[in-house]
Amino acid sequence: MLPAAAAGAPDQAYAQAAVSGAPIGVAFIGTDLRLTWVNEAFAAVSGRGANDHAGRRLSEVLGSWHPAIEDQVREVLQSGRPLRDVPLSSPASSGAASGAASGSASGSAPARHGRATIIPVHAASGPMLGACCVVVDVTDTVQRTEQFLQAQKLESVGLLANVIAHDFNNLLAVVQGYCDLLLRDATDVAKRTKRLGEIRNAAVAAGQLSQQLLALSRRNTGLLGPIDVNLLVRGIGRMLDRILPANVAHDLVLAEDLSLTFADPGEVEQVVMNLITNAIDAMPTGGLLTIETANATLSPDASAAEGLAAGDYVTLRVTDTGVGMDAATKARSFEPLFSTKSPSRATGLGLAAVKAMAERRRGGVSVWSEPAKGSAFTVYLPSVHARPTATSPAPVDQPPRAGETTILLVEDHAALRQALVTVLEDAGYVVLEAGAGGEAQRAAAEHPGPIDLLLSDIELPDADGMELAEQLRALRPGLRVLIASGFGEQALEAKHRGYATIGKPFAMSELVDAIQAVLSPATPAAPAPPGAPRAAGHVH
């Protein structure tokens, strides 16, 4: 029931019925941050009975959805202004408790998502009574959005499939051809060296192709951080000669001082590929594709025109000189499932996904287009200004001396494992080898001496490489870890958990360097004084 003050007059009875039976959650909160009343929909979100809320702190019932939810209410009570679109997210759970909240009798409940609006409540005479928290459960919307974003990737992956398959076959032909020559005649040292070099070059190129395809097909990692859009665009730019039709030229115009933005690298790569795909389709007879990046500061007036908050942004613009769009088509260009192409050639999801991805990062997309003059899509992503934090250098342990370092190698691919053992032993390391997580645990338990480093593949037949690392570090606290992965999102996760990583495929010299870096980490350099020249770097 609503508080007594809400009952009595007919209009108050209507209000009581509407709020009590509303499909969105409503909670009344006193100035002491304790709940006074909730409706059934709010109770369903919190997982408690409607009568089990009065007198409880808001953090008790929504703390798992938003740890700082009470701070948000305090802000509203102090400022007297409503706070809208507060994100809520409840982690996935398992067991009977989660089943009660989610409506399932058993098993695990997936993560749930909501949006809250917190409104100050004043008495008719003016004093602050408390706040009203309105919660909308958007779990279904979030899940469908994720499915929608993943489904639309098929269009851009399909664009690359034939190209990459063709390139892979060419590289395999190179490898097979030179192997045949080596088997036929390996007596000429100069010829043998040249042929082995060509085989290695082909292997490196094949590895780059596989990384490009994985970057497009992977799911968004959900691991957000400051990223340089220029690096991602350059990586895609290296593929453009193979992606674009012969009658389409391209140009990259990248700002040298581009700010960072906070995003998932996989999301931004997908935005670029979707816009490229759209541009190619808009130029059936050829033209020019231009990709530009820049910094932009939007004034209140300019930001209102774009539907964004005022502030600093990183912009990514993809321009084509194609057929363009009339006003009616341009107005519908971001609608899901809308496309001017035939159903057999398009999903109608690409531009809608670009808009969704940008808005998820508090950005947006604008479009300019005129018939027969082309189109330009500009993506706005909020810029972040990375500030180095002053920290005291951690003490550096004395690294093991050459010939005394023991490495536990865990790799399930037998041929690769044998190659790695050979390389590591040639480099002077003592190697314990295992093909699975269980073998590694037995080897670590039975080895009488120290083990200095675990070098493990991230995917093993019976274990996850990172979980194996945690188990072995519990057994041997001083153990250092290097994780090898062929999947970008897994490497990101490993880095976020504090493990050094190396991406497959790698040169053996790169592996030895990575091992040395883990065994003997460099002391952080002191910050350079203002105005000092920076050392030249290189981009991978």
Give a structural overview.
With 540 residues, this protein is α+β, with helices and mostly antiparallel strands. The chain folds into three domains: 4-137, 2-Layer Sandwich (Beta-Lactamase); 145-384, Heat Shock Protein 90 (2-Layer Sandwich); 406-519, 3-Layer(aba) Sandwich (Rossmann fold). 42% of the residues lie in helices and 23% in strands. The protein contains 18 helices and 21 strands. It has helices at 10-21, 40-46, 58-62, 69-79, 96-102, 139-184, 189-217, 229-237, 240-243, 265-281, 300-306, 327-331, 350-360, 414-426, 437-446, 465-475, 488-496, 508-519; strands at residues 25-30, 35-38, 83-90, 93-94, 108-109, 112-122, 128-137, 225-227, 248-253, 260-263, 287-298, 311-320, 364-370, 374-384, 406-410, 430-434, 453-457, 459-460, 463-464, 480-485, 500-503. Strands 8, 9, 10, 11, 12, 13 and 14 form a seven-stranded mixed sheet that branches. Helix 14 (414-426) links the parallel strand 15 (406-410) and strand 16. Helix 6 (139-184) runs antiparallel to helix 7 (189-217), helix 6 (139-184) crosses helix 13 (350-360) and helix 8 (229-237) crosses helix 10. Mean pLDDT is 77; it is low at 94-107, 342-349, 386-399 and 523-540.
Q: Which key terms come to mind for this protein?
A:
disordered C terminus, Beta-Lactamase, 540 residues, Rossmann fold, 3 domains, 18 helices, alpha+beta, seven-stranded mixed sheet
